[in-house]
């Protein structure tokens, strides 16, 4: 199908949530005594919009948006790095603050990129397959089930890579579990919002894709989808 304004809008929200979450992640918060990166206040929304894209437009279109988010985030990281390398003006004395907020270590970047790709593709793949298996029923089960797996993989990979040599195993597992539970509960609370967006887009676009013939290779790009 021809790419629509609504598709572009949801894709833009997906990418914005991703990049914003990565910037917020440098701050640690402690709601109810649990240690979490501040990025958790918006990162789960990328999964919500990913669910919407897969449910309405299918895995093929979502695959394109996932890669778009990856390269947009890469561009942002490159720009931040170049900004940090440029010589500072004599009247500006906040280089250390700049590096703390916008600078990233190679290990953190690697963990972020890998966990994002694996988690998002797992989420989209499972939702698409569950849609076929359930014949389009029980959207809540598909969104929560796919997020349960996707966010779990994302949290395990990112925290595992970044903190493996820093935290003892019990604390490492606690950190993974805490983020995982928080993100899944976020999806559960946001489920009515997902229903509203999905219903609106299906009616407005006249599209409800089932990925019966889709090639699920994550490296095969393309946005064309067929009406159900």
Explain how this protein is built:
The protein is mainly α. It has one domain (5-85, 96-205). The protein is globular, with a radius of gyration of 19 Å. The model has no long low-confidence stretch (mean pLDDT 89). A two-stranded antiparallel sheet has the order 1-2. The termini are close together. α2 (43-57) crosses α6. It has seven helices and two strands. β1 and β2 (36-37) form a beta hairpin. It has helices at 5-24, 43-57, 59-85, 95-102, 106-133, 139-163, 169-205, and strands at 28-29, 36-37. 70% of the residues lie in helices and 2% in strands.
Q: Helicity level, as a percent range?
A: over 70%
Low-pLDDT runs: none
Total count of helical runs of at least 4 residues: 7
Cα-atom radius of gyration: 19 Å
How many discrete structural domains?
1
Distance between the ends: 12 Å
Provide the structure class: mainly alpha
Order of strands across the main sheet: 1-2
Question: N-to-C SSE series?
Answer: HEEHHHHHH
Strand percentage lies at under 5%
Q: What is the β-strand count? A: 2
Shape: globular
**Largest β sheet strand count, sense and barrel closure:** 2 strands, antiparallel
Mean pLDDT over the residues: 89
